[in-house]
Amino acid sequence: MRNVHTRRLGVHRLIMLVTMATGASAAVAGPIADAYRSQADRIIDAALTSDDAYTKLQHLCDDIGHRICGSEALDRAIEWASAELRKDGMSNVHTEPVEVIRWVRGNESCEMVAPRRQPLVMLALGKSVGTPPDGITAPVVVVADEDELEKLGDGAKGKIVLFNNPMPPYDSEKGSGYGHTVRFRTNGARLAAEKGAVACLVRSVTAHSLRTPHTGTMNYKDAPVQIPAAAVTVEDAETIDRMTKRGIEVVLNIKMDAKNHGPAMSANVVGELRGSTHPEQIVVIGGHIDSWDVGQGAHDDGGGCIMALASVKLLKDLGLQPKRTIRVVLWTGEEIGLFGGKQYAKDHADELANHVAAMESDSGAFAPKGYGVDCKDESRMKAAADQLRDIMTLMEKIGATDVSEGHGAPDVSPLQPEGVIVMGHEVEGSKYFDYHHTPADTMDKVNPLELKQNVAMMATMAYILADMPQRLGEKD
Amino acid sequence: MRNVHTRRLGVHRLIMLVTMATGASAAVAGPIADAYRSQADRIIDAALTSDDAYTKLQHLCDDIGHRICGSEALDRAIEWASAELRKDGMSNVHTEPVEVIRWVRGNESCEMVAPRRQPLVMLALGKSVGTPPDGITAPVVVVADEDELEKLGDGAKGKIVLFNNPMPPYDSEKGSGYGHTVRFRTNGARLAAEKGAVACLVRSVTAHSLRTPHTGTMNYKDAPVQIPAAAVTVEDAETIDRMTKRGIEVVLNIKMDAKNHGPAMSANVVGELRGSTHPEQIVVIGGHIDSWDVGQGAHDDGGGCIMALASVKLLKDLGLQPKRTIRVVLWTGEEIGLFGGKQYAKDHADELANHVAAMESDSGAFAPKGYGVDCKDESRMKAAADQLRDIMTLMEKIGATDVSEGHGAPDVSPLQPEGVIVMGHEVEGSKYFDYHHTPADTMDKVNPLELKQNVAMMATMAYILADMPQRLGEKD
């Protein structure tokens, strides 16, 4: 028996190492978890047996589809979400006007015209200007980064600059490498224009590609001239790189109808599950209702919006009215400039002191892992994190126990400098950037069980934060 | 020490189980391996330090690109491969005319026009007819398989039939599931036409998609009418399926310029490393030089062609002239109807008795695993398999030791009924069908080290089969 036991221990240790590598913590249940165990179990059980979230996401993805800022589809999504909140019995349902910008992609193409003709797969970047009707035809110079661009000297003048900087594969400890690599998408056009380039291409920001283009926003800032900017696939970037490294001149023709149409009106969607005792105290939950103009915006960020809608309906249906108010906010215009998040912070400046916490889910609807938490007052953040760790022990049954300090989520980030405790609803991240901003961010990538688990986590967390005696981040 | 040892054993057993699951055999070196160990080591070492195969594949993929039957690009590829064989010092280099068919895709599009407008991603299937210029506009009916189509009765009449049959994920024991799922691509148009459908769509035959369409050939056979047939992505098939399951009528417009232009001439490429003692006895190695008209045909089947070209050059450069002749054959028109393989069997009917073995690599250029072997005379196949297992012990250092009985490869399959021992060069198969017949079958998917390992395996095997005293499949 000893030997058998020891052998099992060997395997067990392997499993423990794997568990530790995924960052699962071993927090011990504290007073909050003890007080809310039965309600948490009810919420989680109900979430895991409800199809509400999946049905809602199906409508958003299949019947409305993608919904870029300024589009009719986004208007329909906003109208639909408001109607759902009303139908589900929420209070104070309304939209809050947000001035956004309207950028329209139009038709676009990219073709290698020398040394041979070959269409390439391309997506213009959000906010890019277009090309003349016949396009821009020029040779390509390939650089890996800013240093290589600098070393070109005058070599980029009159050329198309291609930033071919690979995003590393997902690493469970280091994360995605997105933050490091995305800078070429954001700044590439400005950097290339400073060197006299006529257009800028970036390798799509992803570690996995099946000839998959990834769009996303870019910024000209103080660029000397606004040149067209677009993403090509990993495959096409690598092909051009291999050919130019062999001394072959690759000439491309890029055509883009892309146009900035200036300001347009959109709206944040708001609805509340009003608190019984302290309705003026608010726990915000939500996602962003806009998406890119490709795919269905299923993970980015249909899932986040639907988790919030389904969470308040679930609590309402269970008759679980918390002491404080849970406010659903579905922000608009996140992708193209965080317009909804910034506007919310302005419009609600006078009640931010009453914002107990503001959380967003904008990392996809994969298996839930836990929460990130941030606050400009570090001692309040630490205290909040400890309370969250206590609460997360209730989520062990859905495999979500992580609490990490120092980060929130995009649309709640404008509330952080105002002293609000902001939170990011975090999920297993290995696949997110495979689909992010692509035609492949579609409903089939959302696992129905994982979506339910996300609702379980968000509804449980929102309910406890809105109901527990002490305010998050403060001592009892 | 005992405990430590036992714990290690636990982990070791896990590793053994994993190794066994991948099908690695534990053959023991026999007389052939013993006789050829030093030559095999020389060949393998040389292959692992040569960039020749990668350089050649780069030219085929980047400078020539995809090369569908009947295209100018295929003509260029044939001319280039012949020139390489001559440059590398091969004998009897020539092309052998093959009548193929010329099918041209042209422009194509698929759009959901109701209940909302949304472009879908589509690739016409090879040999499909086109649509009228304005396309075909009709509602979709979705079926999983032949039974569901049958149950529709008249329900497919005037409709577009979508076969939404998922290919299972790759399984290291069961393989890819491609063979079972591809029947809808092959037969779907005929089956749908028999039920009065106006067009046929199939879910792309793949287990992984990033909105990735997979083309491939189809056959009308005795269909009552030839209706257009195309593949849509997994994502679009699933979207239509979800919508129709909710009772929503989905109407599509399909436009396809696709046209069969009738017979055209192409050619197999042939070149030899002539044998010193029995030049009339032949070991065939090769791949198919044509590809689909998307991507670069890197794994399918640029890799196979290049392995053969690089193998004979390597042996020539090492001064290793075998007793028998190694004949490189690069078959044409495989994708659209195995034209080159069939023609070779006809043209060489009078020397097939002298074909010691005929092997093709058409499973990609991933990490090599070993060989499949087939022969209509089972006792010769068994004898050959035993000899191959002996030889494969020499390849342990590149991780390739598998020998499996009862299967060869497409272009050598017409030789099997003639009594020739046919062989398939086999590689790790988990990713092949992710890229197969797609715009993503590109050079970046080929690992340079794995390509070298494939050359090592093919060159070693070809040399030994062409040089060993006994003929493959015969007793000493």
Give the tags.
Aminopeptidase; eight-stranded mixed β-sheet; alpha/beta; homodimer; 13 helices; 36% helix; disordered N terminus
Describe the 3D structure.
2 copies of one chain form a homodimer. Chain A has 476 residues and is of the alpha/beta class. Chain A has helices spanning 2-21, 31-48, 52-64, 72-87, 146-151, 178-181, 183-194, 234-245, 298-317, 339-347, 378-392, 432-435, 448-467; strands at 91-104, 108-114, 118-120, 122-124, 136-143, 160-163, 199-203, 229-232, 251-256, 259-273, 278-288, 324-331, 355-360, 368-374, 402-405, 422-427. In chain A, strands 1-10-12-11-13-16-14-15 form an 8-stranded mixed beta sheet, sandwiched between helices. An 8-stranded mixed beta sheet of chain A has the order 3-2-9-5-6-7-8-4, sandwiched between helices. In chain A, helix 5 (146-151) links the parallel strand 5 and strand 6 (160-163). The longest helix of chain A has 20 residues, at 2-21. The N and C termini of chain A lie far apart (49 Å). The A-B interface holds A 3, 6-11, 14, 58, 61-65, 115-116, 118, 121, 208-212, 234-235, 238-239, 242-243, 246, 248, 295-296, 434-435, 438-440, 442-444 and B 3, 6-11, 14, 58, 61-65, 115-116, 118, 121, 208-212, 234-235, 238-239, 242-243, 246, 248, 295-296, 434-435, 438-440, 442-444.
